[in-house]
């Protein structure tokens, strides 16, 4: 089990590195393919679009493919997308390659979360999922700075080539350590789509889009905030972003045990504390040490939300959790786009560089309201909802000859 979770974490590490390294290499990419930096910024959108489209589409198309085989296929697509990015000769092909690299992102996380939850006892499911997510947070501390530095020294293509190598390592680890997990009579695109219509799943996805949008409203403009208001030099912002990643890692570490014990209270607390941290940052952004402490706290609270939302969706999707789990990452990318857009509107309106913090706090409070709505509507409050994931996943894996059982959700 530890080696299987490590293999899933390596996949998450590669995904996190390729997703965010592009942002740090936009000037080099722009020079290399002969476009402006703002035009090169569309490559970030191309990857996000791939995530949004790929998560539900790929999990739907592959709804009957056994989980391990699907992980291997998706990892192979991830490797191909990054190799294509490293070799793309012009902007058009690079845009297509980044879209291709983003396609397996959400599906990999969704399938990986279901696989991780089935590797352990029911009362440790969230901890297993959070260990996979650790790969994503560690990427913000190590992978993204290393990929950026590599791209600056050896050319931006080398960063994508390095990510492809990470993908190959992850592919080998998945093949060696993840056990076979069959999918039986309750697997299929109709079951997955029907599960997505569950109102708790819809509210959970809306909570992720709105609540996590508060996180991205600030993260998207963190560097200009630091340089214009805090007085931190451009050369030091990479270290501050790594500090953000440290906070995210800490939040992920505590999210697993807390979610296993009390899923909804962990989600409520994470959103409330995220809103409080963003309001605090509005006032502390002008002083270096308080700003750095607040940034670390915001990173931790943002990460604390991720695991309970993922487990909630998997639990409420009943016996077809894979598409719901994957769509969570589509929701996060919509939150990225929406939060950045709303934060940018506040700055453009003349409210100042610190204004995205108040926008983000408002989004986090709105997300908390949606989460409370889901809790109020949920009348099945029987113990930890995390344990429902195991029941649902076990039902999904029933062989064709087995009698149909109904998973409680």
UniProtKB/TrEMBL annotation:
Region feature Disordered, mapped onto this chain: 384-409
Membrane topology category: Multi-pass membrane protein
Database matches in Pfam families: MFS_1
Transmembrane segments: 42-63, 70-97, 103-121, 133-152, 158-180, 201-223, 235-255, 267-285, 291-313, 334-353, 359-377
Record-annotated Major facilitator superfamily (MFS) profile domain positions: 2-379
Subcellular location: Cell membrane
Alphabetized Gene3D superfamilies for the sequence: MFS general substrate transporter like domains
UniProt cross-references to CDD domains, sorted A to Z: MFS_NepI_like
Protein name per UniProt: MFS transporter
Naturally occurring in which organism (per UniProt): Streptomyces osmaniensis
């Amino acid at each position: 089990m530890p080696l299987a979770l490590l293999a899933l974490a390596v996949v998450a590490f590669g995904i996190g590195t390729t997703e965010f390294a592009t942002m740090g290499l936009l000037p080099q990419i722009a020079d290399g393919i002969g476009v402006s930096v703002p035009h090169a910024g569309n490559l970030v959108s191309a990857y996000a679009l791939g995530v949004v489209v790929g998560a539900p589409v790929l999990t739907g198309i592959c709804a009957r493919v056994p989980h391990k085989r699907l992980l291997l296929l998706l990892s192979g697509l991830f490797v191909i997308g990054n190799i294509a990015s490293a070799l793309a000769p012009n902007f058009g092909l690079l845009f297509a390659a980044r879209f291709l690299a983003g396609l397996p992102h959400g599906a990999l996380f969704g399938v990986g979360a279901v696989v991780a939850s089935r590797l352990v006892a029911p009362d440790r499911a969230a901890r297993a999922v959070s260990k996979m997510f650790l790969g994503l947070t560690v990427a913000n501390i190590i992978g993204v700075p290393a990929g950026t530095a590599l791209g600056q020294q050896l050319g931006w293509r080398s960063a994508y080539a390095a990510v492809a190598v990470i993908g190959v390592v992850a592919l080998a680890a998945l093949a060696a350590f993840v056990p076979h997990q069959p999918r039986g009579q309750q697997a299929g695109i109709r079951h997955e789509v029907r599960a997505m219509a569950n109102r708790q799943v819809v509210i959970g996805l809306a909570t992720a889009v709105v609540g996590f949008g508060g996180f991205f409203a600030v993260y998207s403009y963190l560097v200009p905030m630091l340089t214009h208001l805090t007085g931190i030099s451009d050369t030091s912002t990479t270290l501050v972003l790594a500090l953000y990643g440290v906070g995210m890692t800490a939040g992920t570490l505590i999210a697993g045990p807390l979610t296993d014990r009390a899923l909804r209270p962990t989600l409520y607390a994470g959103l409330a504390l995220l809103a409080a941290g963003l309001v605090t940052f509005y006032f502390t952004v002008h002083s270096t040490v308080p700003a750095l402490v607040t940034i670390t706290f915001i990173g931790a609270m943002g990460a604390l939300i991720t695991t309970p939302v993922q487990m909630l969706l998997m639990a409420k999707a009943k016996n077809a959790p894979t598409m719901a789990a994957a769509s969570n990452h589509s929701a996060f990318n919509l939150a990225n786009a929406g939060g950045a857009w709303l934060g940018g509107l506040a700055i453009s309106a003349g409210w100042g560089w610190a204004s995205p913090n108040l926008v983000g706090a408002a989004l986090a409070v709105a997300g908390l309201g949606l989460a409370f709505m889901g809790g109020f509507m949920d009348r099945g409050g029987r113990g930890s909802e995390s344990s429902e994931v195991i029941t649902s996943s076990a039902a999904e894996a029933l062989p064709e000859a087995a009698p149909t059982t109904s998973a409680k959700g």
